[in-house]
Amino acid sequence: MSQTIKDIRKLSLDEIIVDFAAVDIPKYRAKQIYDWLWNKGAGGFEEMTNLSKDLRLSLKEKYTIHQIQENLVQKSNDGTIKIGFKCIDNRMIEGVMIPAEDRMTACVSSQVGCSLNCKFCATGMLKRERNLDAGEIYDQVVFLNKQSIFHFNKPLTNIVYMGMGEPLLNYDNVMKSIGYITSPEGLGMSPRRITVSTSGVARGIIRMADEGKKFKLALSLHAADDKKREQIMDINKSNPLQDVMASLQYFYNKTGNKITFEYILFNNFNDTDEDAKNLIQLCQQVPVFVNLIEYNQVEGVTYTKANEGRTNAFKAMIERQGIDVQIRRSRGKDIDAACGQLANKNGQ
Ligand code: SAH
Ligand code: SF4
After folding, report:
1. Which ligand does the CA of 198 lie closest to?
2. What distance in Å separates the CA atoms of residue 57 and residue 292, rounded to the nearest whole number?
3. Which of 38, 142, 143, 172 matches a 20 to 30 Å C-alpha distance to 226?
């Protein structure tokens, strides 16, 4: 009789214990394996060197580990590293490691492609093929951490969910992956070093607030009135700014965490004084940091980036109101690793 082989990473520790008990494998073995899976990031049973050879072999007959594989590693001339990963079903995703003086940041994908079709984003031009599971998100962190240590001798300090896909449309797997990254049995990172970025799924923001976890939230705002936002982000039609702002206030009240507004400055579209005033109004509704983002050119997009003078004047208007604001220059552009450029160009 053929037995189906289970992905052991889909099981909780308790489920592994129960499975093992049925074949007389002691509980401490389940704990050792769980540690290999979620603390050490093992991709195969042969790596689990504190288990006997026989046990490793018998595990291999019953279980598999659907770890993603590094397909292509590229290094930008500014030190940014992009990894193209191949999933078990041969689908491709990308993750990025961004080195800076004070931090090493991993930017991870949450979906293969994206269903949301924002007009300025290369990922939005791919169709959403599927959600990533929690292990596939976790794996990106493990591999990006290895690159960080290998090239810079420093482990990751921060994780941002700003790669391909909309994290709040893959809610359960994203939360589970945060669990593996932050729990003491997992990678043990502080939730304060994790930022989830969303295009504005109000219901998801409220759900996240109710989790009572201490990770951070960023909103990809990009326009501060409904009419303009709808032109560049379809999601604004089902999640207008009023609803999104209400969800952010709820999030702030529950968590006490300031929210980050991401705002790409497009030349002659959302970079006028009037736009700055609209943005200031939103900033007065909930405590925020504002990141003014340099637009990275994406093929087929007609928007262009705001010029230097306009960018500085826009920033100054916001600053004058006592709002925390900074300009974010893009990183990794030469290897298509910058925000909005992830599109599996080198995948096959
Ligand atoms: N789907 C989520 C997370 C991934 S996008 C979200 O939209 O928030 C990561 C960030 O890159 C978002 O702030 C997104 O708006 C931004 N981005 C997309 N295309 C970009 C581009 N061409 N130039 C600069 N930033 C871009
Ligand atoms: Fe999807 Fe975010 Fe890109 Fe919009 S900006 S298409 S939500 S990945």
Report:
1. 1
2. 53
3. 172
61 — alpha (psi -120 to 50), left (phi > 0) or beta?
alpha
Element (H, E) at 143: helix 134-152
Q: Is 339 in the pocket of ligand 1 (CB under 6 A)?
A: yes
The response to whether residue 45 sits with its C-beta less than 6 Å from ligand 1 reads: no
Residues in the chain: 348
- Ligand 2 atom showing the smallest separation from residue 340 Cα: 3
Q: Are 343 and 125 in contact (CB under 8 A)?
A: yes
Per-residue pLDDT tens digits of the chain, which is 348 residues long: 456 899 999 999 999 999 999 999 999 999 999 999 999 999 999 999 999 999 999 999 999 999 999 999 999 999 999 999 999 999 999 999 999 999 999 999 999 999 999 999 998 888 898 999 999 999 999 999 999 999 999 999 999 999 999 999 999 999 999 999 999 999 999 999 999 999 999 999 999 999 988 899 999 999 999 999 999 999 999 999 999 999 999 999 999 999 999 999 999 999 999 999 999 999 999 999 999 999 998 888 999 999 999 999 999 999 999 999 999 988 888 888 877 787 777 654
Q: How far is CA 298 from the centre of its chain?
A: 20
Pairwise CA distance, residues 135 & 268, whole Å? 42
Residue 121 Cβ contacting ligand 2 at under 6 Å: yes
User: Is position 61 annotated as part of the catalytic site?
Assistant: no
How far does the centroid of ligand 1 lie from the alpha carbon of residue 163, in Å?
Answer: 8
Question: Which is the catalytic residue, given 87, 118, 121, 339?
Answer: 339
Is residue 339 annotated as part of the catalytic site, yes or no? yes
Closest CA to 187 of 111, 135, 110: 135
* 8 A C-beta contact, residue 181 and residue 108: no
Query: What pTM value is reported for the model?
Result: 0.95
From the list 27, 28, 46, 48, the residue with the least C-alpha distance to 36 is 48
